[in-house]
Amino acid sequence: MATFGTLSDRLTETFRNLRTKGKLTAADVDGTVREIRRALLDADVALQVVKDFTAKVRERALGDEVNKALNPAQQVVQIVNEELIGILGGEQRRLEFAKTPPTVIMLAGLQGSGKTTFAGKLAKQLEKDGHTPLLVAADLQRPNAVNQLQVVAQQAGATIYAPEPGNGVGDPVKVSRDGVEHARRQQHDVVIIDTAGRLGVDAELMKQAADIRKAVDPDEVLFVIDAMIGQDAVNTAKAFQDGVDFTGVVLSKLDGDARGGAALSVASVTGRPIIFASTGEGLDDLEPFHPDRMASRILDLGDILTLIEQAQQAFDEEEAKKVAEKLANEAFTLEDFLDQLQQMKKMGSMKKMLGMLPGMGQMKQQLDDFDEREIDRTEAIIRSMTPGERRNPKVLNGSRRLRIAKGSGMTVTDVNQLVQRFDQAAKMMKTVARGGTPNIPGMGPVPGMGRPGASSKRGKKGKSSGGSRSGNPAKRAAENAGLATAQQGTGSGFGLGGAQQAPSEADLAEIQKLFGKG
């Protein structure tokens, strides 16, 4: 949700300053409201919406509910959250389907707002829910608009009705009317009509959209608006509401870098609910819009419910039980790890999922640096192993690791890193499966993460712990020197064998870097 990143940062910083105060004075409230007003205006939220919003926040923040609260700062955050939910529409509104199929959904909006892509996304989502949508190509004006919808329909696995070639040829009103009749004959229960847009609002656009609406009498008219359009979003929304009217709003391009606050104004200004939010270019990047969850994301409070829903859709419950049993019995292998990676990929972008966790706005740089392709690289390495190697990574000697590295297009260092990370992850997951508390990197010692050459555990019973305990300093130094010489013959730090010598400073730095990356 990069679009609201700046707004989220500003609001989070404002509330962070509030938390240092045990009791809020009128001056504190006024200062907070002033910062909120600036943050909203900088984010392109409509002026009237900002005025109404800040007035309500100030009135409630100075009321008894804050004065009597045990933690006034948290109470103000709660007030801002509730008011933000209000300007985003209040409650979630789902698509309303016709009692007698087909349900007709008409898409309207400016050219370039993302109507055609949204049509494919909506068709794919409806098919997942058991519907049989039909896409109707009624945008006969924009060059290659019909071809684009055909490609999108093919990617979404949806049926398309496109009797006219477009590029200025054909009557969009007739195509829309015939499309609905075709859907009725072919027993499609939903019709999605992709209409033409313009670079700006004009009379011809409004007349054509109004004629199509009159001809097909749609159950839903969805206004698709680019979240990056700026202050003109409000004017465009008002023009479409007056000229065509619409029943719901779709926010597209929420993954963009623009300020996007004007999109927050649409629901408040038009009184029409936001139904969907498009969060990426992929056909799966479409979410039902939840005002409360969006408000939580903007305030960096996380969106755990959406994260859980995505996980439930992607993960197989039976598989999860099998994995839990394997973890408890210490039988978790790289094959199981590969299956888990593939299920994670089904959930979508890792960056988006991590961004739904509370407080992740404070780790923006780490999220930006996260490489989504790391999962693909890991998958390539595991697939280059034999079934026996996946089940028992301990057999991976130097020659096997070299073969795996060549087969996956990676380096031996990458293979070693994966095996080490898998070992650490397996140990932590076994601990969790047994009801224990794992040692997490950065929060406590992790097996194998100590200094090179040192054991993460005490020596086994009956064996030396690895150092002289002589009271004679000269003798102790000589014995330790001999011990170091004996330990040089254990192979390289990457498990590849090779020269029998102690690792150099460069080798140690490389090992630390390798573990740190894990």
Automatic annotation (TrEMBL):
<feature type="region of interest" description="Disordered">
    <location>
        <begin position="433"/>
        <end position="505"/>
    </location>
</feature>
<comment type="function">
    <text>Involved in targeting and insertion of nascent membrane proteins into the cytoplasmic membrane. Binds to the hydrophobic signal sequence of the ribosome-nascent chain (RNC) as it emerges from the ribosomes. The SRP-RNC complex is then targeted to the cytoplasmic membrane where it interacts with the SRP receptor FtsY.</text>
</comment>
<keyword id="KW-0733">Signal recognition particle</keyword>
<dbReference type="InterPro" id="IPR004780">
    <property type="entry name" value="SRP"/>
</dbReference>
<dbReference type="GO" id="GO:0006614">
    <property type="term" value="P:SRP-dependent cotranslational protein targeting to membrane"/>
</dbReference>
<dbReference type="InterPro" id="IPR042101">
    <property type="entry name" value="SRP54_N_sf"/>
</dbReference>
<protein>
    <recommendedName>
        <fullName>Signal recognition particle protein</fullName>
        <ecNumber>3.6.5.4</ecNumber>
    </recommendedName>
</protein>
<feature type="domain" description="SRP54-type proteins GTP-binding">
    <location>
        <begin position="273"/>
        <end position="286"/>
    </location>
</feature>
<dbReference type="InterPro" id="IPR000897">
    <property type="entry name" value="SRP54_GTPase_dom"/>
</dbReference>
<keyword id="KW-0342">GTP-binding</keyword>
<dbReference type="GO" id="GO:0008312">
    <property type="term" value="F:7S RNA binding"/>
</dbReference>
<keyword id="KW-0378">Hydrolase</keyword>
<feature type="binding site">
    <location>
        <begin position="194"/>
        <end position="198"/>
    </location>
    <ligand>
        <name>GTP</name>
    </ligand>
</feature>
<dbReference type="InterPro" id="IPR013822">
    <property type="entry name" value="Signal_recog_particl_SRP54_hlx"/>
</dbReference>
<dbReference type="GO" id="GO:0003924">
    <property type="term" value="F:GTPase activity"/>
</dbReference>
<dbReference type="Pfam" id="PF02881">
    <property type="entry name" value="SRP54_N"/>
</dbReference>
<comment type="similarity">
    <text>Belongs to the GTP-binding SRP family. SRP54 subfamily.</text>
</comment>
<keyword id="KW-0547">Nucleotide-binding</keyword>
<dbReference type="InterPro" id="IPR022941">
    <property type="entry name" value="SRP54"/>
</dbReference>
<feature type="binding site">
    <location>
        <begin position="252"/>
        <end position="255"/>
    </location>
    <ligand>
        <name>GTP</name>
    </ligand>
</feature>
<dbReference type="InterPro" id="IPR004125">
    <property type="entry name" value="Signal_recog_particle_SRP54_M"/>
</dbReference>
<keyword id="KW-0687">Ribonucleoprotein</keyword>
<dbReference type="InterPro" id="IPR027417">
    <property type="entry name" value="P-loop_NTPase"/>
</dbReference>
<dbReference type="Pfam" id="PF00448">
    <property type="entry name" value="SRP54"/>
</dbReference>
<comment type="subunit">
    <text>Part of the signal recognition particle protein translocation system, which is composed of SRP and FtsY.</text>
</comment>
<dbReference type="InterPro" id="IPR036891">
    <property type="entry name" value="Signal_recog_part_SRP54_M_sf"/>
</dbReference>
<keyword id="KW-0694">RNA-binding</keyword>
<dbReference type="Pfam" id="PF02978">
    <property type="entry name" value="SRP_SPB"/>
</dbReference>
<dbReference type="GO" id="GO:0005525">
    <property type="term" value="F:GTP binding"/>
</dbReference>
<feature type="binding site">
    <location>
        <begin position="109"/>
        <end position="116"/>
    </location>
    <ligand>
        <name>GTP</name>
    </ligand>
</feature>
<keyword id="KW-0963">Cytoplasm</keyword>
<dbReference type="InterPro" id="IPR003593">
    <property type="entry name" value="AAA+_ATPase"/>
</dbReference>
<dbReference type="GO" id="GO:0048500">
    <property type="term" value="C:signal recognition particle"/>
</dbReference>
